[in-house]
Design brief:
alpha+beta; Immunoglobulin-like; 4 domains; seven-stranded mixed beta sheet; six-stranded antiparallel beta sheet; 39 strands
């Protein structure tokens, strides 16, 4: 018999009421943090990959330099410059050799001596003075040197000790000085600026890169060397990344030497002084100021952030955009070396450079605050041009069809772009949009009322590559059971025609199945039983789209006959 509209509405109300009466498990919240970032290094001044990118687009080296160093000009130095490069320090001796006669000069005394070609050691003597020893015989060739000791030859000397970033057995331009520094010795290479640049350019930039990029690197490195010299110290620069990496003659290349020659003596000028030619591997798309990169209170006016549109170098730069990293709340805390879980992260962003200047990580054990460079160091990142987005999604793991509940969450820091809610029905199903635009409160939270009729998996669609946790919700049909004479009638919502329902009766041994019945076209199943007294319920055992569920318990009294 067909049901009237009124009876159908009454039945639906009863089904939903039964569903509401079934307890929904407490919601569980999951939070994941997505870390994205760009670039490698401080990002101040010239980006090496960016210079390559501009060269790929036909820019000349002077145009490249004008882009990165705002308001500077390029012209030659008025005078020749000598550089003093610390190759090594903290040792008791240094081994070197020459293929031609070597002149040994005691700069602290009056002694000068020429020794044959060969291998030697310069070391401390027992009286604290220096001496030169034949490496093969250990004979003292020159002794009682006050120091510093200068060693030079018509052919470049070879340093057999390990120096710089690991060079050993290589030749160096200029002459060598061995200087007493405390209780140990320091080895310094004194070299003309242009020959110093021959060792710097191929050590800082691949010599296979385009000429315009190599020339821009040569001018930037020359400017940095001149602007940061220390005339009153024992040396002007280190041979490693504390200044610029400086390599031996064996590391030179014809292409990089050509770039040095083509730009000979040229430096960057700003207001009559040589500009500091800071450079780094990759800006990530925006260069940085000294304030944003290092937290400095001030910075040079020509080192201001600029857009670096070709930093990707046509896909050659592996650090233009980092691979996305995803952390659990506990995993992020572990990465920082702190206890517990990270609850949320607050970031302060320098707008012009996009660098993080301050980052605060909120945990159950208090807050951990860092400067941008401090957070970079704590997380082992390549620059302080990064973002961390925390996303929380919270909903019940199980519910009954027709039951309304709130799916809640938070996206923080709050994004400027749209956040959507996505849904799919299970393995292999495509993601679909459930809510095109979520309304986020000022603190990044949201709440959306939903009432799914079958199993669902939810996640957020987020900007910037951020990852959302997934909330799987198992949805069981709503079931009711009523007695009808000496039989029972069950109703299921939503209607699952052909599904099998099981009538169960409670006994001393627990719930026992009594009878199975299929669901008809209108959502009913009927059970004819010989006895109706007792406690009864109907159960659905689940299918591919629905979780198992049970009806509320029906207590049926004994039927009295008159």
């Amino acid at each position: 018999m067909a049901l009237s509209v009124g009876r159908r509405l009454t039945l639906l109300s009863a089904v939903v009421a039964a569903a509401m009466a079934t307890a929904v498990p407490a919601a569980q919240a999951r939070t994941v943090f997505t870390l994205t970032g760009h670039g490698w290094g401080h990002g101040i001044g010239l980006s090496q990959y960016g210079a390559l990118g501009y060269a790929q687009h036909g820019w000349s080296y002077d145009w490249i330099l004008a882009h990165y160093y705002t308001g500077t000009t390029v012209s030659a130095l008025p005078n020749a410059v000598q550089m003093r490069i610390q190759l090594a320090s903290g040792r008791g001796s240094y081994a070197l050799s020459g293929s031609s006669r070597i002149t040994v000069v005691d700069e602290g005394g009056t002694k000068s001596k020429t020794i044959p070609a060969g291998s030697y050691r310069v070391e401390r003597g027992t009286t604290g003075r220096l001496r030169v020893v034949d490496a093969s015989s250990n004979a003292r060739v020159v002794k009682h040197l006050t120091g510093p000791v200068r060693l030079g030859a018509s052919q470049a000397l070879r340093v057999d000790s390990t120096v710089g970033i690991g060079w050993a057995g290589d030749h160096w331009h200029g002459y060598l000085r061995v200087i007493r520094s405390g209780s140990s010795l320091m080895l310094v290479d004194v070299v003309p600026l242009e020959y110093y640049l021959r060792g710097v350019v191929p050590s800082e930039m691949p010599s296979s890169w385009l000429p315009a990029a190599l020339r821009a690197q040569a001018v930037a490195a020359r400017s940095y060397a001149v602007a940061t010299r220390h005339p009153t110290s024992l040396f002007d620069a280190y041979a490693d990344t504390r200044s610029q990496v400086y390599g031996p003659i064996e590391h030179e290349a014809s292409s990089s030497n050509a770039a040095v020659s083509a730009t000979a003596h040229q430096v960057l000028w700003y207001n009559g002084a040589v500009a500091v030619g800071f450079f780094s591997s990759s800006s990530g798309g925006w260069t940085a100021s000294e304030q944003a990169a290092w937290g400095s209170s001030s910075g040079e006016p020509y080192l201001v952030p600029v857009r670096d549109r070709y930093d990707g170098a046509q896909g050659l730069n592996p650090n233009h955009t980092w691979p996305t990293r995803v952390f659990t709340a506990r995993g992020l805390a572990r990465e920082l070396g702190v206890k517990g879980k990270v609850r949320s992260v607050d970031l302060v962003i320098d707008g012009p450079s996009q660098r993080i200047t301050h980052a605060t990580f909120h945990t159950g054990f208090g807050n951990r605050a860092y400067t941008g460079p401090g957070a970079e160091l704590a997380l082992g990142l390549r620059s302080n041009y990064f973002r961390i987005v925390g996303v929380t999604l919270k909903g019940p793991e199980h519910t009954i069809a027709g039951t309304r509940f709130a799916l809640t969450g938070r996206v923080w820091p709050k994004p400027h772009n749209r956040v959507s809610l996505l849904v799919h029905d299970g393995p292999g199903a495509p993601w679909a949009t459930a809510a095109d635009k979520l309304s986020l409160a000022n603190d990044g939270t949201f709440s959306l009322t939903i009432h799914p009729k079958q199993n669902r998996v939810y996640r957020l669609g987020l900007p910037g590559g951020a990852v959302s946790p997934r909330q799987t919700i198992a949805v069981g049909p709503a079931l009711t059971l009523v007695r009808s004479g000496k039989s029972f009638r069950a109703t299921i919502f939503p209607v699952l025609r052909g599904a099998i329902l099981t009538l169960q009766r409670h006994t001393s041994g627990g719930w026992k199945p009594v009878s199975d019945a299929p669901v008809g076209a209108k959502g009913h199943a009927r059970f004819a039983v010989s006895k109706t007294v007792g406690r009864w319920r109907v159960a659905f055992h689940g299918d591919a789209k629905h979780a198992a569920s049970r009806s509320p318990i029906l207590a049926s009294p004994r039927i009295r006959h008159r």
